[in-house]
Amino acid sequence: MRRLLLVGCVAFALVGCRRPAAKPDAGQTAIAPVKVESATIAVRPVPRIVPLTGTLAAELRTELTANGSGRVVKTFVERGQQVEHGALLAQLDVRSAAASAAEAGAGVASAKTQLDAARAECERYDALVVRGAITKQEHDRQTANCKEQLAAVAVSQARATSASIAVGDGTIRAPFSGVVTERLVSIGDYVQPSSKVVTLVVSNPLRLKLTVPERRIGDVKEGALVSFAAAGVPGRTFTGTVKYVSGEVRPTTRDVVVEATVANGDGALLPGMFVDASLYAGERPMPVVPKVAVFATGEEKSIYVVNDKHLELRIVKLGVEAGDAFAVDEGAKAGELVVLNPSPAMTDGAPVE
């Protein structure tokens, strides 16, 4: 009897320690397949773009010097003013130069008078030596005198020309049509030939100076199209054409300087602006995905592809725009099915009908 009771207790204990069978969780229902619209990722020729940075520079730029000495008595331009070729920029005090020019002019007149008298005397000596009235030595001395007077006239004329140039240098004019970016003198300043008066630039067209890394030199050709944007002119894209390609790689930076010409008829761009540019380097075949397939996941771009009848989330690195599509540099390949117009309710791994 005792043995039966012990066996009964053990059996009861075993039954009491067994866990009840788990019931299915209502939240663990199977995910319903989703209907998607898809397209095959195709290969299409797309522009090959080289991203570059550059700086705009004036087609012509000069820091115009006085080229003369004197005190500034008048200025005619201000910063930012457009001037034409030959326009008056500043005037120096040329009274001293004018007096020297007048003196030199009088010296020319005096030398010519003396030359006329010497020539008349030479003609008389020519007649006398023919008649034997004077010796050949006397004739030669008079001939030498005539030559000296002729040389004196030439010297006087050279001095007069120099004095006239000094007077002209007191009037400072624009060597070409352009924009005054800086005026460096004011009335009362004393300037010398090396003194800077104004900075003058030609702002249309401009030159876009680009630095191309050594590994991308083969992508740059004369005549290539460049598009760029400048922070100082938001919302606008400008274009230019490569015109000059340097013939050497700079040893310190391992790059090549390339210059493109840029039209600037409305003056929106200014020399010295820093720009982000894109150089068109032909076309190449690349996989493309429709724009309607791309969506943002944080700061990255993503797509859904259909893989083994399930959605697969892909983070992609996009290239250039190609009409209604984006070129894909990384994250997808040709022949895969990409989901069009993905819904925010879609999840990675969801089955697809």
Describe it.
With 353 residues, the protein is of the alpha+beta class. Among the domains are: 62-93 and 171-200, RNA polymerase II/Efflux pump adaptor protein, barrel-sandwich hybrid domain (OB fold (Dihydrolipoamide Acetyltransferase, E2P)), CATH 2.40.50.100; 95-168, Helix hairpin bin (Helix Hairpins), CATH 1.10.287. Helix content is 25%, strand content 41%. It is built from 3 helices and 18 strands. It has helices at 2-17, 95-131, 136-169; strands spanning 37-40, 42-65, 70-75, 82-83, 88-92, 171-173, 178-183, 190-191, 196-213, 225-230, 238-245, 255-262, 274-290, 295-297, 300-307, 310-322, 325-330, 337-340. The strands form 2 sheets. Strands 2-9-12-11-10-13 form a 6-stranded antiparallel β-barrel. A 4-stranded antiparallel β-sheet has the order 6-5-3-8. β15 and β16 form a beta hairpin. The model is unreliable at 1-28 (pLDDT under 50).
Outline of the structure:
By secondary structure, the protein is an alpha+beta fold. It has helices spanning 2-17, 95-131, 136-169, and strands at residues 37-40, 42-65, 70-75, 82-83, 88-92, 171-173, 178-183, 190-191, 196-213, 225-230, 238-245, 255-262, 274-290, 295-297, 300-307, 310-322, 325-330, 337-340.
Q: How is the secondary structure organized here?
A:
Blueprint: H1 2-17, E1 37-40, E2 42-65, E3 70-75, E4 82-83, E5 88-92, H2 95-131, H3 136-169, E6 171-173, E7 178-183, E8 190-191, E9 196-213, E10 225-230, E11 238-245, E12 255-262, E13 274-290, E14 295-297, E15 300-307, E16 310-322, E17 325-330, E18 337-340
